[in-house]
Amino acid sequence: MRQAVRIYMGFMVAAIMLLACVTHGHAEEAAGVKLFNLTIQNHTFQPATLSAPANQPLALHVVNKDNAAEEFESEALKREKIVPANGEITILLPALKPGTYGFVGEFHEETAKGTLVVQP
Amino acid sequence: MMIALVVLREVLEAMLIISVVLAASKGVAKRGWFVAGGVGLGVIGAFVVAFFVSQLSGAFAGHGQEFFQAAIMFMVTLLIGWHVVWMQHHGREMVAEMKQMGAAVSSGRKPLLVLALVVALAVWREGSEVVLFIEGFLAGQPVASVAFGSALGIAAGVGLGSLLYLGLLRLKMSTMFSTTNLLMACIAAGMAARGAGKLIETGILPPLVEPVWDTSAVLPEQSLPGQFVASLTGYIAQPSAMQLLFYVFTLATLAVLLHRQKRRHASSQAAQPIAQ
Predict the structure, then answer these.
(1) How large is the greatest C-alpha to C-alpha distance in chain B, in angstroms?
(2) Which of 206-235 (B) contact A at CB < 8 A?
(3) C-alpha distances in angstroms, B140 versus A98, B52, B128, B135?
(4) How far apart are alpha carbons B236 and B220 in whole angstroms?
(5) Minimal C-alpha gap between B39 and chain A (Å)
(6) ipTM score here?
(7) CA B158, B160, B164 angle in degrees (round to 5)?
(8) B209-255 confidence digits (pLDDT tens)
(9) For residue B202, which phi and psi values (nearest 5 degrees)?
(10) How does pLDDT run across B48-88, given as a tens digit for each residue?
């Protein structure tokens, strides 16, 4: 019985690792989800202000052009994710109500600041 | 100062779990070694994660970070849940034995391993964030100020966490066990809710309703007291309905398992009135 459990666990781990490698880097873009691009350069966000429509799911594609990792953090959006140096990530956002949502680069908060303006 | 605060937050979260674990295992021999081992393992794991953060981020269609964190949180839920049920079963024996002999309990080995694992996972999760923070800060600031800020944050986190441990120790033994059991059940439920939150971020789980309530004006999670409460009770300022479901489900499952233990214990006591 224990042997069977071990074999099962081994399979699961192998399957998960395979899945991780196969899906590496290919960020999903669900049909119809608006994608917005954000670049981190010289520890600043470009553009510093993004405009997006309200009441529909959004996706933020963050590219880090610096040689240092940054952490994208937004209390308003409830997201916190590391953007590796010279790397990129995608952050999925649910449908948002109109308003302004601030975000920062937590490793360089003085310079890395931005706002997502959601309009109806 | 920024560094100290950031490091303090992460260290405090791990310290609170470590404090509860240390209090819950009081009296069991060599538990300090197990906990220290857990911390060491977690720290090594944290550096490994930081080293591989690029690969981790890219994995699972760009959601490697979220899946990794969710996996750790659910593992902690399972391990703590196991320990809570185990304590219910063996807790009374342990208390009785300790009173009789005043010495360590031999049956402590298995749960100690589980607790060491819980500590390792907690330190691993918080630690990987700390390592990445420090790496990030080092890129822009002098080493001396980063080192000083980090040391300050760690010291403050350990100090504050120790207050909880000392507070728990002042309770009567049986009260302390039931208190740590309750805390651990809430921590497990909170971990499940947060793990669910991470899965929601990847889009795999729907939030259902978001947020069910918003108490971030009253007790923001990012504040120090908010962090304290969040770590010990699983409090979330703006929870989604899915997260609440996970929280309630975890507590309900533990309640059912504990109730079954109680009945089994009671019926076996009735059948064999002579102490084993």
Answers:
(1) 70
(2) 207, 210, 216, 220, 222
(3) 35, 21, 19, 9
(4) 9
(5) 23
(6) 0.79
(7) 105
(8) 888 999 988 998 888 888 889 888 999 999 999 999 999 999 999 99
(9) -80, -10
(10) 998 888 888 888 878 889 999 999 999 999 999 988 888 77
User: Do the beta carbons of residue B266 and residue B93 sit within 8 Å?
Assistant: no
Please answer whether residues A88 and A64 qualify as being in contact, where contact means their C-beta atoms are separated by less than 8 angstroms. Answer: yes
* B113 contacts chain A (CB < 8 A): no
CA angle B49, B54, B56 (to 5 degrees): 55
Placement of tokens 């999925």 in the chain: A92
- The DSSP call for residue B170 is T
Q: Which two tokens stand for residue B246?
A: 């996970």
Measured on CA atoms in the order B83, B113, B43, B176, is the torsion positive or negative?
Answer: positive
Interface probe with B: pick from A12, A21, A24, most Cβ of B within 10 Å = A24
CB B98 within 8 A of CB B14: no
Q: How far is CA B138 from CA A70, A81, B148, B155, in A?
A: 12, 19, 12, 19
Contact status, residue A26 vs residue A51, Cβ threshold 8 Å: no
φ/ψ of residue B228, rounded to 5: -55, -55
Residues of B in contact with A19 (CB under 8 A): 60
Cβ–Cβ < 8 Å for B124, B42 = yes
Q: Is residue B2 less than 8 Å (CB to CB) from chain A?
A: yes
Which residues, 6 or more positions from A26, have their beta carbon under 8 angstroms from its beta carbon? B61, B62
In this structure, the number of other CB atoms found within 10 A of the CB of residue A26 comes to 11
Query: Of chain A residues 71-100, which have a CB less than 8 A from chain B?
Result: 71, 75, 78-79, 81-85, 87, 89-92, 94
* Closest-CA distance of chain A to residue B195, Å: 14
Q: Rounded to whole angstroms, how far apart are CA atoms A70 and A77?
A: 17
Cβ contact, residue pair A89, B66, below 8 Å: no
